[in-house]
Amino acid sequence: MIYLPNPSLQRRGAFHMKDLIRNASLEAGFFVVGISSVEPSTELTHLQQWLSEDYNGTMKWIARDPRARCDPKTLLPEAKSVICFGLLYGENGITDKIPPLPPLQKGGWGDLNKARFARGLDYHEVVSEKLEQVWAAIKKHVPNARHKICVDTSPILEKALAVRAGLGWQGKHAIVIHPDHGSFFVLGEIITDIEMEPDSPVSNRCGDCKKCINACPTKAIVEPNIIDARRCLSYLTIEHKGVVPDEFQKYLKPNQCGCDICQEVCPFNKTAQS
After folding, report:
1. Is residue 220 a part of any domain in this protein?
2. What is d(CA 58, CA 102) in angstroms, rounded to the nearest whole number?
3. Which active-site residues does the annotation give?
4. pLDDT at residue 12 greater than cutoff 90
5. Which of 183, 190, 208, 244 sits 20 to 30 Å CA-CA off 84?
């Protein structure tokens, strides 16, 4: 069932919540949006196995209540749908918001030593503002609806939800890939008590390709879709608490922040940039 502001509008076919959401999302700057159900993710076994191998490294917060992390209703008990969004970023990260970030301090990170997502604005803030913009458009038609906005830091498996909503599939590097736009985009979600028909997932198109696995200098992709964060340069330069182990130091640039190697070799990113 889709909540409608007026039953007469439903009879005339003048209003459809999904159309409203897609129009508002495009206006906010998202390149893709999809609807997921709120059924608990089937990723629980995968997550528990990953944690049992200590692949989360010093990210101990991931191990807190894995079952709840797989259930959107943990964040909004009355939830009926999850609206999933994708925001593209380019060579210089997200740059479409004013005012821009202050100049880098002398001795700080050079842009080329940052992963693309980290070269521009803080995507958490940008995506949150855009999600609020979309929600404001929804609230005009459904003023009593409830919601919870999530951007990366919320305890939810956002990549699993994005895949279920049809934004793309999870590649062997564990990053969501859109068939036409590749993987250089960030995710955001609105969990809501508005009930909508879920969208359909897209098929995984990685096939036999192993370019991301072969390109990783530290062999962090131990199996397709399984990352040992303790070996991942992105984790080691952003999330890791403590000194980077000597065996990985040779792969790092001065003051490195993040890593794009596995994405740069992906054929879907090369196609998106051509």
Report:
1. no
2. 30
3. 152
4. no
5. 208
pLDDT in tens, 175-191: 999 999 999 999 999 99
**Residues 29-58 pLDDT 10s:** 999 999 999 999 999 999 999 999 999 999
Tokens of 251: 């792969």
Q: What is the pLDDT of residue 96?
A: 63
For 17, list phi and psi in degrees, rounded to 5.
-60, -40
> Could you tell me the residue range of the domain that residue 157 belongs to?
7-204
Residue 38 domain flag: yes
Predicted confidence (pLDDT) per residue in 241-252, tens digit = 888 999 999 999
CA-closest candidate to residue 83, choices 245, 224, 193: 193
The count of domains in the chain is 1
Q: Which two tokens stand for residue 245?
A: 């182990």
Single-letter residue type at 119: R
pTM score, whole prediction: 0.88
Q: Is there a domain that residue 260 lies in?
A: no
Classify residue 4 by its DSSP letter: -
- b (16+ CB within 10 A) / e for 194-220: bebebbebbeeebeebebbbeebebeb
